[in-house]
Write a structure and sequence with these properties.
3 domains; D-Maltodextrin-Binding Protein, domain 2
């Protein structure tokens, strides 16, 4: 029996299969090359408040760029930028952001928006902190020994909290107040812990407004000018990390501080209440 024709057919099929696999690999590679995306290291408050659900679809519609967000505490987000694991950093600790740029990790810091911090706690307010003065409120809280949940995660909110305790004359390094607990977690989990244990928590207003599991918690301290909470955005310096997508990342920075980006921020509301206030042009 002559097997030559059969061998020719098998070789032909193998050749066709190899070509088909090669075509699929080429198509996948081309698709990845054509896909435009950046990694944005940001705070948990911008994600958990729902803001990015408002902004990112509009950014993609305007630019064709997909922004993939990694939500962390501000300190961790800045560390991502230092490692070159993100193209853009969008956070809320101005002193740390300015140092990030001064140390050469970021190209330039742009102010984007602001809201404020609030101190929430049980409606009965056993520590009697209710009012507009965050420093006085924390002094009363420390003296009472009431439960307080700190994020303890080097986030922008945690950095602000540490400033307020210091202004209140409380040296956390020497001795923490009796009810002080650190969770090492994001804003949402910290609020969940506060709700379940009827504890006081410092939170950004955006996350608080979007938080559903409030239990008996309510806003007790607000309106102090020291509670101002500014957000900034920075392109990670491509001189430090050559793989940073400079043009795409800068497109995100430019859009979020542009009139359409600022309008999108202002339009985001929950229950008719605005969560963030754009101030890039100021």
């Amino acid at each position: 029996m002559d097997l030559k024709p059969i061998r020719m057919i098998l070789r032909s099929r193998r050749t066709l299969m190899a070509c088909a696999v090669g075509a699929l690999i080429c198509a996948a590679t081309l698709s990845q090359a054509q896909e435009k995306f950046i990694v944005v290291a940001s705070t948990t408050s911008t994600e958990q408040s729902g803001l990015f659900g408002q902004l990112l679809p509009q950014f993609k519609a305007a630019t064709g760029i997909d922004a993939r967000v990694v939500a962390l505490g501000t300190g961790q987000a800045l560390d991502m930028g230092r490692r070159g694991d993100a193209d853009v950093v969008f956070v809320h600790d101005q002193a740390a952001e300015e140092k990030f740029v001064a140390d050469g990790w970021g190209v330039r810091r742009y102010p984007v928006m602001y809201n404020d911090f609030v101190l929430v706690g049980p409606a009965a307010d056993p520590a009697k902190v209710r009012g507009k003065d965050i420093v006085t409120g924390l002094q009363k809280l420390a003296a009472s020994g009431a439960a307080f949940i700190s994020r303890g995660d080097k986030s922008g909110t945690h950095a602000a909290e540490l400033r307020y305790w210091k202004q209140a004359g409380v040296d956390l390094a020497a001795a923490k107040p009796a009810g002080y607990r650190e969770c090492g977690c994001g804003m949402g989990p910290a609020l969940n812990m506060g709700s379940s244990s009827n504890a006081y928590v410092l939170t950004d207003r955006g996350t608080w407004l979007s938080f559903k599991n409030r239990g008996d918690l309510t806003v007790l301290v607000e309106g102090d000018t020291r509670l101002f909470n500014q957000y900034g955005v920075m392109l990670v310096n491509p001189a430090k990390h050559a793989h940073v997508k400079q043009a795409l990342g800068q497109s995100f920075v430019d859009w979020v501080v542009s009139a359409p980006g600022q309008a999108a921020i202002a339009a985001y509301k929950i229950g008719g209440e605005q969560l963030f206030f754009p101030n890039a042009a100021r």
